[in-house]
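hi! just following up on the protien thing from before. the input was this:
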Amino acid sequence: MKSLWNEGEASALNNDLLKLRVYTSRLLGKEEDLVLHGGGNTSVKIKKTNIFGQEEDILYVKGSGWDLATIEEPGFAPVKLDALLALAELDELSDLEMVRNQRMAMIDPGAPNPSVEAILHALIPYTFVDHSHADAVVTISNTPNGRERIEELYGKNMLIVPYVMPGFILAKEIYNMTRGLDWDTIDGMILMNHGVFTFHADARESYERMIQIVSQAEDYLKSEGAQLIDEAAGTPANALQLAKLRRRISEVWKKPVLARNDHSPATVAFSNLSNIGEIANRGPLTPDHIIRTKRTPLILQHEADQDLSAFVANYNQYFDTYNQGETKLDQAPRWAVWPGHGAVSFGPAVKNLKIIEDVTRHTAKAIHQAEQLGGWKALPLDDLFEMEYWSLEQAKLKRAKKPLPMQGKVALVTGAAGGIGKACVESLVAEGAVVAALDINPAIVAAFDQNEVLGIQCDVTDMTQLEQAIHQTVSYFGGLDMLVTNAGIFPKSATIADMDGDLWQKSLDINVTSHQRLLQLAVPFLELGFEPAVVIIGSKNVPAPGPGASAYSVAKAGLTQLGRIAAMELGVKGIRVNIIHPNAVYDTAIWTDEILAARAKHYGLTIEQYKTNNVLRVEVTSRDVADLATLMLGPSFSKITGAQIPIDGGNDRVI
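and the predicted 3d structure came back as:
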């Protein structure tokens, strides 16, 4: 591991202690082998003058919810140092009381909650304190003779702390261990099964001590022959099998969740280890990870139902053994090992999938290396249970915001590059769904910057491309719950007598046939979906056609009939199919200025009059249609199928 310190960048901070703290914190956060997704914490001690003109020592410590990789000055909670040191003098203090008292000692009530390690940071008598969960160090400690190896590696200049629960208990342990200690005689602290602390009066020195200590551990692993796993080729999980697995996980979790297959070469190699079912079930890399990943993964070695039932039974036994009055969490796994296919992450949101994938990749690497040092040895089950059911985590769950209505659900929208399709994507994401956005326009791939949207270029008239798009959607998000079949064209106005045969056929191909093919390909996945539903975007032209629009009107009428029959056929499978008939939606690609002007002229109206030519005298927008589609996909329409709903401001011909 190399130091990323840049003297030019650091000098530009003009010795501002908090800015230097932000700078070196981000350097640590850049190294995934040091911290992952909110792991680790840092602090700096600064003298501040309060409103009464009195000088106080303030500990600026990383706040809860912030990530070292992206932390900014507001991410550090300012706490009175003397209050923290006074808390360390107490014989007992629950972690909930510790959090409350730390917050009472803050000088900025708007700052985030201080790290649970704040008292420990206060006890270390140096300006800068850095704490990481360094993979290499924890890997060595997670072996049968881990302490002996750590002592051999670092000698007497390192304070070695046996594993203790984070929070007040850990702070008190170190308080007792360091009474009378000359801190200048040690280079840092190793917390067994947990991580590393370094400290110094100088920001660079504290940071580079961390790099040096971790580099020593990395070199030790190499010298002991603990090699990285040989990568192996694998195949992505079959889309239908993945959707089935996601469905079963959702049932155990009692809510829809996402699933993503990691079939990277290293992960596939890990999944192929002959003893994978035994070593992967010993426990996580650090106890902190259990909050993200649970104690063990699901091992897919038999039938998925059989393996999942065994996982749930084992979890229930684990809970019953160590429970002391806690409320049982869900029994669903957070990740699975799938031999030949790598791993699968499960979570209610895309960010959860990313976090779990990163954590499990590092866990897999550590397990493999520790096995070469005599065996992977995680913490005892009672310690892991204590972390999983930590009072602070239980309190977080109680304070958690109510999830958005469609969190964990997967939608696919066609014609998504603009107009109604684009608005549908945005409306669904706003309700918590993830969306595959399909369009023939190549710009669709980069049209949305949210992680919740997967842009896919697809010609909906091409059966092969449609099938690939559906499989890509399922591979990326785990399944399919909702379908908005919207792609369409509005051909140039032409009478039946003057109709061009190619134009007629193109309208049928795009406005009817492509929708039938999409439904045909999507149904096997919708059957496995969570409260599956389809919305078809029809047209006012179905109940009230106009002259010169036969190619469009006939196609949309056929699409409507397709939807009605689909509602009857798919209802027995629990799939709802409803139809929206928009009219006068002019912020869509099919309504070019030329077409709009022509239609207005045909009716003898100005363009503005034409836009609001309805009973309510209102303009209907793409977002209006999208919000209706989202409503129809949700629980409000849970007992409605085969419905046709106009959204047109009131059209007298339709009425």
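The first strand starts at residue 41 and ends at 49.
Residues 501-526 form the longest helix (26 residues).
cheers
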